[in-house]
Amino acid sequence: MEVWKLLVALAALVVPLLTGESGGTPGRRAKATAEASRMLPALAELDARQMESLRCRCCGAAGMDAVFLKKLAELQASWKKRLTFTSGRRCPRHNARVGGVPHSRHLTGQAADVAIGAREQARFCALARRLGFRSVLPDPRRNYVHLSLEALRECSAKRER
89 by DSSP, 3-state: which? Predict the structure, then answer.
């Protein structure tokens, strides 16, 4: 619903410019501008369901890194599609159960796995690297991409997971 309001507010600003009309009263334009600027930052944020999917699967531990979350929101806005997370924060027990390394960035909330189909992974990985993700590990067999802002400490890509 918020997206629809944003589109209406933006249309109120853009259509008059394109058609050469005055665009109504200055008050109406100011209201549309204020509404659009209020909603734009909210659209770049991760929603509650996404935040829930970043919790540890076994114990529900939260605590994702704030800088990392902001980067994920920026990536989502640039990708122009809602991101689906398959893994985020992990407790040590869950990390060991899924075969993660002892010092995985998932333990500190600084890594996430994003569901991306094999066909789109190259484009997604290129975008993630441009936005500053230094550890970008695609897995076309399992249709996800591992993301972290820090470069891998280990030589093997599999060890970071």
Answer: coil
Q: Which phi and psi (to 5°) does residue 18 adopt?
A: -70, -35
pLDDT tens digits, 22-37: 555 666 666 655 655 5
Q: Where are the alpha helices (DSSP H) in the chain?
A: 2-19, 26-43, 48-53, 66-79, 92-97, 121-130, 157-160
Whole-angstrom distance, CA of residue 26 vs CA of residue 66? 39
The pLDDT confidence band at residue 1, using thresholds 50, 70 and 90, is very low
In this predicted model, what pLDDT tens digit does every residue of 62-97 receive, in sequence order?
Answer: 999 999 999 999 999 999 999 999 999 999 999 999
Q: Which residue has the tokens 């605590």?
A: 63
Phi, psi at residue 21, to the nearest 5°? -80, 165
Reading the block at residue 157, the tokens are 């890509």
Q: Which tokens in the block code for residue 40? A: 């734009």
pTM above 0.70, yes or no: no
d(CA 86, CA 53): 7
85: its two tokens: 């997370």
